[in-house]
Structure formats: structure tokens, C-alpha cells
Amino acid sequence: MKTTFTMIALLAMFSFTSCKKESDKEVTTEATVTDTIAVADEAPVFEPFQVMAVSHTVKDFDTWKKGFDAHESARTASGLTKMAVSRDMENPNKVSIFLKIADLQKAKDFAASPNLKETMQKLGVTSKPEIIYVDIVRFEDTPAEYKDRIRVAHEVKDFDTWLKVYDTEGKETRLANGLIDRALSRSLDNPNMIFITFAISDMAKAKARLTDPALKKIMTDAGVISKPVVDFYTVVE
Q: What is the pLDDT of residues 39-51, one digit of tens each?
């Protein structure tokens, strides 16, 4: 009888220990899953970065592009990484290149180098390059369904005041007008010089919005002090 009682007690202890281990395991697993979900849901913090944008016209795009690709090692040595190459909608031989900057001084030295000037001449660049340096303060890096772009450039009285009005207008309003937010940048030489880039989902709506008196009022209220310069281009790479 005593032996039977001892066996029952041992079985009970074993059952309790097993249940406790399983319970601990479930709690641990649940905590791990919860932690994993929390980490997965946490959006990465955006860090502003600098870009050098170069625009010029070329004799022949395909010839230029081959030479441009071959010159990549020189750009890499200067801390420049290609982000995009685009062609103007009205003049496909007008090219814009967007390069991410790792070192601003190296980028400026590269832009001013005799080697770059000589390379451009060999590749058939026919206009004086326009080079701007900007801080990217907002950027949508997800793959874009639409490759056509509008870039609007204008000067404002005060960036923070302008941004509040721009955000009040809202992404949804712009989206309803065929404009998808892609990038917002400020000139390094003049932080109140703003460049806004949109992907175009509906060209007719986008063009209509640009001439809409309602948009003109929004820009006036936001403190825009220069005539906007609007560029239409298509991202080819």
C-alpha cells in the first residue's frame, strides 16, 4: 500500500512538473512571438541624406549611357552612388542623374574635376551641366509602379511654415489629383529652396492640378515667393 501511494505521489509530481514546464514553454514562446511581432511592426527611422543632381543634354542617349556606366568606378571612388537616371519628356536627350553623396567635399571635387569635364565631352554632352546639391528630408524608397515624374522647385519664406501648409493639404489630396509623394528636398546652398518630386498616376489630373487656382492659393498661404519651375521626366533606371 505504501509503495502504491509513493508511486501515485511521484506520478503526480511528474505530471505537475511536466505541466509547469509546458506552461513555462508556452509563456516563453508567446513572449518570443510577441517580441518578434513588435520588432517586425516597428518602422525603420528615416535618416536624411544628401544627393547631387546633374542635368544636361547629350547628342545620343544610348552612346552617353554606355560611357556613363563605364565611368562608375570614378563616381564610387568619390563616394557617389547612382540612385536614378531620367530623361526629360519633351526632350529625351536631356538627362538627369541623381547620385547619393557619402562625402560632400569629395562630390564637389568630382564635379569640378577636369576628368569629369573631359569624360562628358567624349560622351557627347552638349550643354553646360546644371548641378545642385540637396538634403533629402523625406523619401519614399518603395518600388514605384509609375515611372513618370514631376519635380516642382520653388523658394519659400520659411520652410517650417511652408511644410505645415503642405502637410495640411495632405497626401490623399495630392493622390486624388494623380500625384504620388516620392521625395522632398532642400538646397544645401539655400534651405528655403524646395524641390518636391511626385510620381504621376494620372497625367491629365496632375497637369490640371498644377494650374488649379486652389493650389495657387495654398502656395501663397504657405509663403512661396518664387515662380515654380516644373520639370516632367521619366525614370529609365
A: 445 667 889 999 9
Tens-place pLDDT, residues 210-233: 999 999 999 999 999 999 999 999
CA distances from 222 to 169, 174, 179, 198, 226 (A): 10, 16, 19, 19, 12
CA–CA separation, 154 vs 196, rounded Å? 9
Q: 3-state SS of the chain?
A: CHHHHHHHHHHHHHHHHHHHHHHHHHHHHHHHHHHHHHHHHCCCCCCCEEEEEEEEEECCHHHHHHHHHHCHHHHHHCCEEEEEEEEECCCCCEEEEEEEECCHHHHHHHHCCHHHHHHHHHCCECCCCEEEEEEEEEECCCCCCCCEEEEEEEEECCHHHHHHHHHHHCHHHHHHCCEEEEEEEEECCCCCEEEEEEEECCHHHHHHHHCCHHHHHHHHHHCECCCCEEEEEEECC
